[in-house]
């Protein structure tokens, strides 16, 4: 027999409080109005991220020397969004930039990608992975390659002196929100680059940044995350995303988190499972309406195929049992 246990509230409440107040306290929400109406007051400044100034200076140094910058994107939806954010921003700065990746079958992190990284690469930017890939970083750095890691995954305690890491989960990092996605960390780096260069392009990608929080199932209880999710849902700008939503018959004016998670994300996941991750990234970096439409249709078809296979598998298993 199952035993039901009452959840210990994160904050104390009085038995005479309303159900709403009790639920808020259980989940650690002290200000209900602020939770329901997130605002710019919930944002934390990018300068709280450790190593950010050094990362910005290193990126600008390599751009000034006309070096090609290689972006290594992780192979999931957050990886596609964060890789696209960094790629689009560096392209905006007129940098020589190229984006590389592996496929789902290969796994995650720089340890899977050493075979596709040119030893003559001057600057490698790993997005949404590789915080703990110390050995790979050491081998890549031995070629003279500068390495920047923009990530949000938990640090496993290994010192990495071979790369500059921007990650809110790193020790001695003062950034209070540990629930950022890779896309949000990339966006924060772009905000810093804007301020250093006098630019204003980072905000053009706030939709991708905010939606990456949903794509990677980051906590919406975090006030900063709620603000950016709300902002992103109301300001879809990316051409590829708008094209995909249009093909899915999702109205951008009424889109909510459920529509994104259960419409867009499955399409990206389906094409990733087919080991065609380049199409997921291509959707977000293309400014060609025809190309975006072609990719959107491919993603939708991949998801339809996935549904058919899933249904067939279920029917087979049901029959055999």
UniProtKB/TrEMBL annotation:
Transmembrane segments: none annotated. Residues 69-211 form the DDH domain. Gene3D superfamilies: 3.90.1640.30. Keywords: Exonuclease, Hydrolase, Nuclease. GO terms for molecular function: exonuclease activity. InterPro entries: DDH_dom, DHH_sf, SSDNA_exonuclease_RecJ. The keyword Nuclease applies. The keyword NADP does not apply. It comes from the Bacteria. This is Exonuclease.
């Amino acid at each position: 027999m199952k035993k039901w246990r009452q959840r210990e509230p994160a904050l104390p409440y009085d038995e005479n409080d309303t159900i709403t107040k009790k639920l808020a306290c259980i989940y650690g929400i002290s200000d209900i109005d602020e939770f329901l109406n997130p605002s710019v007051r919930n944002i934390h400044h990018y300068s709280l991220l450790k190593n950010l100034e050094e990362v910005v200076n290193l990126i600008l140094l390599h751009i000034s020397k006309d070096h090609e910058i290689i972006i290594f994107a992780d192979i999931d939806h957050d990886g596609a969004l964060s890789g696209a954010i960094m790629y689009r921003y560096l392209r905006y700065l007129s940098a020589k930039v190229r984006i590389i990746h592996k496929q789902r079958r290969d796994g995650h992190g720089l340890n899977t990608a050493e075979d596709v990284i040119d030893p003559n690469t001057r600057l490698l930017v790993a997005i949404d992975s590789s915080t703990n890939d110390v050995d790979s970083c050491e081998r890549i750095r031995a070629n003279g390659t500068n390495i920047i890691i923009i990530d949000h995954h938990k640090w496993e305690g290994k010192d990495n002196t071979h790369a500059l890491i921007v990650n809110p989960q790193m020790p001695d990092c003062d950034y209070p929100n540990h629930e950022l996605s890779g896309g949000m960390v990339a966006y924060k780096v772009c905000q810093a680059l804007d301020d250093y260069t006098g630019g204003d392009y980072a905000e053009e990608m706030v939709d991708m940044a905010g939606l990456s929080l949903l794509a990677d199932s980051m906590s919406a209880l975090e006030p900063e995350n709620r603000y950016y999710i709300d902002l992103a849902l109301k300001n879809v700008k990316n051409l590829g995303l708008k094209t995909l939503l249009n093909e899915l018959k999702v109205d951008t004016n009424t889109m909510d988190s459920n529509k994104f998670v259960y419409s867009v994300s499955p399409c990206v996941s389906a094409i990733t499972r087919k080991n065609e991750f380049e199409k997921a990234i291509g959707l977000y970096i293309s400014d060609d309406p025809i190309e975006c439409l072609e990719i959107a249709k491919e993603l939708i078809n991949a998801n339809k195929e996935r549904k058919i296979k899933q249904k067939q598998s279920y029917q087979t298993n049901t029959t055999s049992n």
